[in-house]
């Protein structure tokens, strides 16, 4: 549970924190625009210097040497993008700046056997908008880490039940927690002990005597850097979406949240129809373009709180939070219709593609594996019934229809049309494996439920 200090404690600590040290919150308020500056202009560097404070500056230029990059750094340039312009790279920078403008609150796990000391630290972080959870019993650390994706673990070095260094080594034994920064907070001054703390799983060391303003800022900077690195590690290189492992982790976390709060979520497994035909007919670069187009269009269509991941190959996972299947169906089906009308441009012409999707709600399954199996079975049925459609799994738990894919290309057959468009099956419909059937929905506004 998130730590919330009592009002007297919060007011007292708020008076002791200089708002100027709450860097993440200040950045979120300041960043408003992204400026693309042509490095070929004679006064390009001067334009960078004159840009409004808080604006993200992207310097677009040909090959840049050390001196050019140094001048860019001095002028406050945030990103240097080479020409010819790679639209995918530019899109990734824009997404980065967007996330920086409205970041999710940082989440920090404070591990300290001294509750009073832990609450003092948590209150300092709370003043700057950092959500914290306190663990005073080290044996329950893994329960907290498995329940929530923390941005940082702030841990006392000396605890009676187990030392901080040993606990850090235990945390690092799990691949799931390898990328979570661990920062030790201690009064220990011995250089050898500090080095051992870093060597065996710790990332940094902050003295308990550190000024409280500086402590908060150090935590914020650590969180900011960790988020950037984790994004690079956990994202698919082609589409920029989170990868298979991270997506399944998010599904598990949301199911756990649902058990605690009673909230619903809906999982959709989305698979591009006849994708092998696209690659065979138009080439693998065209296939990559389709994958990127679907990922970007789907992300833009949904809410920012929804989760889109690349599950593997041409299959994507969509997790819609606080949403039932009945609410998800119109949104996803309107996107299905919208996407089927988009022209995919290749070297030799243009073509169109469709996708099929299987949908399952969290009331259908309480565990990640069973929810994925239900959605995957519904997807298989959508393929078997003709593709370009949605199929919804039954709402009640029960045996999941078993299926096997006889070959890697079972879902990917198709033929080239003479007009240059990929072959499409009959007009899609929404199907449920239960008695209820829902008609198609129109519209292409961002998902609102």
Question: How would you describe this protein?
Answer:
By secondary structure, the chain is of the alpha/beta class. The chain is 41% helix and 18% strand. It is built from 15 helices and 16 strands. It has a six-stranded mixed β-sheet, with helices on both faces. α12 crosses α13 (284-301). The longest helix has 23 residues, at 212-234.
Task: Describe the SSE topology.
Layout: H1 7-16, H2 23-30, E1 34-38, H3 44-50, E2 56-61, H4 66-74, E3 79-82, H5 87-101, E4 107-111, H6 115-127, E5 131-135, H7 141-147, E6 152-156, H8 164-171, E7 182-186, H9 191-199, E8 204-207, H10 212-234, H11 244-261, E9 265-272, H12 275-282, H13 284-301, E10 307-312, E11 315-321, H14 325-340, E12 344-346, E13 349-351, E14 355-361, H15 368-384, E15 390-392, E16 430-432
Helix pairs in contact: 1-6, 12-13
Instruction: Give me the secondary-structure category.
Output: alpha/beta
**What is the count of structural domains?**
3
What's the CATH class of the largest domain, please?
Alpha Beta
Residue runs with pLDDT of under 50 for 5 or more positions? 24-31, 399-447
Assembly annotation: single chain
The N- to C-terminal Cα distance equals: 26 Å
- Beta strands, count: 16
CATH topology of the largest domain: Alpha-Beta Plaits
Number of helices: 15
**Percent range for β-strand residues:** 15-25%
In CATH, the homologous superfamily of the largest domain goes by the name Reverse transcriptase/Diguanylate cyclase domain
What coarse outline follows from CA principal-axis ratios?
flat
Helix content: 40-55%
Largest sheet: 6 strands, mixed
Can you name the CATH architecture of the largest domain?
2-Layer Sandwich
Radius of gyration: 25 Å
Sequence of strands across the biggest β-sheet:
10-11-9-14-15-16
Overall pLDDT confidence: 80
